[in-house]
């Protein structure tokens, strides 16, 4: 009786401690951000403080992540709460000084902090696996920015039938671990960039022993082939393009075939490592009376059972659920940003929020 009682007390105290950390996330910020990592990111980006200031750039990185945790608080109040200023004559920092420090910091250092922490936190999280593979997905989103000359220069407007869009727009493609909704990588661009172009930037950031689920918009044999060749067991699954031509090589099971797809000269020119043909696995499944054809790089039928693979693609919806909050938040929170560089920094700031906290 008593051992069980004290075990429950210990669990309760642990839950209370975690709840307090969630209520006051700034108090646990030091558990997630390594000062040495921030210093390396600043050095790699060439961002330096030329003279001694009360709010060094290293501390400004902490402030930007703090913004993700306390979105309703003014920036200067977050600085004061974090107590990250160097000693001075005044106990608090002026709001204008914080804005100037944020402009000096720019976006490149914040991007590097995002990338490195994404890798660290992803590797440190014990994700569930399927057949030894981590389940990932990629998806894109875009949103409007304020109509200013600075944003117009940084993010050219999309045109339709010769008419420009009402607002400059930003496009983003993210990669997400599906069981935790942890963002593992992100790429930003303008509306002139296709989602496939942005997805190319995620190839090198994708880890080994992974399965990335993609929607049909990313169907490109060059992209898919490069994804597989970038590391060990970097697999993908995507709906077969309507009208795609293929040759059946071998039957692996019911609705399960090894197939060969021919590549185009244009694709081979763009992707030097792409051959004349790509071998893949084609699954034919029926969901709610609708026939669906799924193409995947997992050609080993012994390691990857076809019956289980047929249900995997439904998990891609998790990235839509993970995106729901971030899409609503970004459409409402970027309305005050009038400069392209500040907006890019804000994108990585919000991505950091979705990543871990």
Q: Topology, pairings included?
A:
Layout lengths: L1 H22 L11 H10 L12 H13 L5 H8 L12 H11 L2 H17 L4 E2 L2 E12 L4 H6 L4 E2 L2 E2 L4 E9 L4 E9 L4 H6 L9 E4 L7 H9 L4 E6 L7 E7 L2 E7 L2 H6 L6 E11 L2 E7 L9 H7 L4 H17 L6 H16 L2
Helix pairs in contact: 2-6, 3-4, 3-5, 3-13, 4-5, 6-13
What are the main properties of this structure?
357 residues; alpha+beta; 2 domains; two-stranded antiparallel ribbon; 13 helices; 41% helix; disordered N terminus; Transposases_IS4_N; RNaseH-like_sf; Transposase_11; DNA binding; transposase activity
How does this model look, in words?
With 357 residues, this protein is α+β, with helices and mostly antiparallel strands. It has 13 helices and 12 strands. The chain has helices at 2-23, 35-44, 57-69, 75-82, 95-105, 108-124, 149-154, 195-200, 221-229, 265-270, 306-312, 317-333, 340-355; strands at 129-130, 133-144, 159-160, 163-164, 169-177, 182-190, 210-213, 234-239, 247-253, 256-262, 277-287, 290-296. Strands 1, 2, 5, 6, 7, 8, 9, 10, 11 and 12 form a 10-stranded mixed beta sheet that branches. A two-stranded antiparallel sheet has the order 3-4. Helix 3 (57-69) packs across helix 5, helix 3 crosses helix 13 and helix 6 packs parallel to helix 13 (340-355). The radius of gyration is 24 Å and the shape is globular. The two termini are 37 Å apart. Residues 1-7, 18-23, 332-336 and 353-357 have low confidence and may be disordered. This is Transposase DDE domain protein.
């Amino acid at each position: 009786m008593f051992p069980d009682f004290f075990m429950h007390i210990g669990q309760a105290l642990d839950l209370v401690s975690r709840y307090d950390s969630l209520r006051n996330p700034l108090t646990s910020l030091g558990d997630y951000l390594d000062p040495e990592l921030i210093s390396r990111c600043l050095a790699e980006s060439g961002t330096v403080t030329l003279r001694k200031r009360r709010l060094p750039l290293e501390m400004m990185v902490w402030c930007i992540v703090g913004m993700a945790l306390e979105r309703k608080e003014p920036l200067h109040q977050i600085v004061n709460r974090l107590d990250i200023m160097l000693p001075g004559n005044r106990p608090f920092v002026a709001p204008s000084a914080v804005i100037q420090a944020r402009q000096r910091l720019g976006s490149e250092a914040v991007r590097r902090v995002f990338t490195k922490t994404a890798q660290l936190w992803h590797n440190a999280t014990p994700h569930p696996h399927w057949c030894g593979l981590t389940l990932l997905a990629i998806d894109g989103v875009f949103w409007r920015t304020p109509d200013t000359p600075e944003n117009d220069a940084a993010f050219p407007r999309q045109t339709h039938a010769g008419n420009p869009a009402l607002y400059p727009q930003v496009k983003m493609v993210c990669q997400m671990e599906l069981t935790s909704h942890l963002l593992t990588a992100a790429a930003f661009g303008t509306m002139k960039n296709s989602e496939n172009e942005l997805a190319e930037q995620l190839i090198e950031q994708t880890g080994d022993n992974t399965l990335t689920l993609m929607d049909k918009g990313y169907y490109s044999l060059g992209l898919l082939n490069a994804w597989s060749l970038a590391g060990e067991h970097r697999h993908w699954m995507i709906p077969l393009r309507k009208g795609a031509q293929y040759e059946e090589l071998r039957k692996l099971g019911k609705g399960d075939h090894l197939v060969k797809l021919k590549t185009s000269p244009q694709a081979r020119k763009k992707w030097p490592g792409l051959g004349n043909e790509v071998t893949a696995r084609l699954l034919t499944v029926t969901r709610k009376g609708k026939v669906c054809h799924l193409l995947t790089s997992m050609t080993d039928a012994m390691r990857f059972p076809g019956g289980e693979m047929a249900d995997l693609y439904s998990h891609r919806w998790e990235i839509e659920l993970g995106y729901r909050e971030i899409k609503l938040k970004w459409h409402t929170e970027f309305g005050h940003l009038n400069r392209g560089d500040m907006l890019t920094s804000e994108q990585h700031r919000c991505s950091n929020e979705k990543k871990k906290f």
